[in-house]
Amino acid sequence: MVLVPGTDLDTATGPQDGIRFMITSGIMTKDELTQFQQLLNSQPQLSEFESSLLPDIELGIARLTDIENVYDVAGEHGGIWSIGRIITYYERGVQNLLFVSQPKSAAKENIDPGTFEYTNRTVGVDKGEEGNSAGDSEVATLQELKNRIWGYNVLQGLPSHLHIILSSNMGPCIGCQGRLRAFINDLRAAVSALNYTLPTTLEINYTTARNSGSRHGLETTYGYNSDQTISVGHPEVYHYYSKTFDYNLQ
After folding, report:
1. Cα–Cα–Cα angle for 36, 42, 47, nearest 5°?
2. Residue 230 near residue 241 (C-beta atoms within 8 A)
3. Which of 96, 121, 159, 163 has the fewest Cβ atoms nearer than 10 Å?
4. CA 237 to chain CA mean position, Å
5. Which residues, in sequence order, are bridge partners of residue 3?
6. Could you tell me where the DSSP H helices lie in the chain?
7. Cα 128 to the chain's mean position, in Å?
């Protein structure tokens, strides 16, 4: 039996659904999740339910690490930053936190956007918006994600599920939403060539509420109109915004 940090619940009496909801919904802070993970790992033997919590806890820690990291970097340096993470799952339940990129801001780091594949590759976006957003942080982050997946033959390992998390201090603009669609199309083509089906989750998290603005005379929107507000902590310590897309790529 393990007590759930910050609550009067324990893993023996549950309720099990309630404990899992606290882990996956953002109610538990990163410190609480880390403490819970350490408590479980210190046990000589875990129940089936306790063992099943560990991947969810690890995912929760990773998710909050990225959103807090990008918020801190943006606070220190200004501008808009993003981080990408790749998580793979396999049939035997093995979870691999495969890769997390360094925080990227093309504008702040004086990166030439012409060096990136998705600078001028969008789906469903007009050329004006595509050009205005060519220097956005997501362009560099998507390149890092693609380099990792294709360069390390991740798909050839035939994962049973691919989970990609993009974290930023601002939601993707209309142009970068089109780049994300182009990225998913590239994944779909690569999976199709391998003749199998890959359930894929694209999770996009950001710390600033959806908003609109004008760049070079064109209006754009940052974030998704159907996103969710995720409150972290009980009582709330902070909140962020999230949009998830699920695909069956084949």
Report:
1. 80
2. yes
3. 96
4. 20
5. 10
6. 16-24, 30-41, 48-77, 127-132, 137-151, 174-193
7. 27
Under DSSP, the state recorded for 74 is H
Predicted pLDDT at 77: 92
- Phi/psi for 24 (5° steps) reads -90, -15
pLDDT of residue 111: 66
Greatest C-alpha distance within the chain = 63
Q: Is 148 helix (H, G, I), strand (E, B) or coil?
A: helix
Q: What is the pLDDT of residue 97?
A: 72
Reduced to 3 states (helix: H, G, I; strand: E, B; else coil), residue 137 is helix
Any bridge partners for residue 246, and if so which? 201
Chain centroid, CA 154 distance in Å: 17
Q: Are 187 and 200 in contact (CB under 8 A)?
A: yes
Q: Are 70 and 105 in contact (CB under 8 A)?
A: no
- Specify the pTM: 0.93
Note whether 5 and 32 are within 8 A (CB): yes
Instruction: Quote the pLDDT of residue 108.
Output: 59
Among 101, 65, 103, residue whose Cα is nearest residue 86: 101
Ordered by start, the domain boundaries in the chain are 79-249
- Residue 243 and residue 226 in contact, taking contact as beta carbons nearer than 8 Å: yes
For residue 103, the model assigns a pLDDT of: 76
Mapping DSSP to helix (H, G, I), strand (E, B) and coil, where does residue 84 land? strand
List b or e across 2-22, with b for residues whose CB sees 16 or more CB atoms inside 10 angstroms: bebbbeebebeeeeeeebbeb
Q: Give the chain's residues under pLDDT 50.
A: none
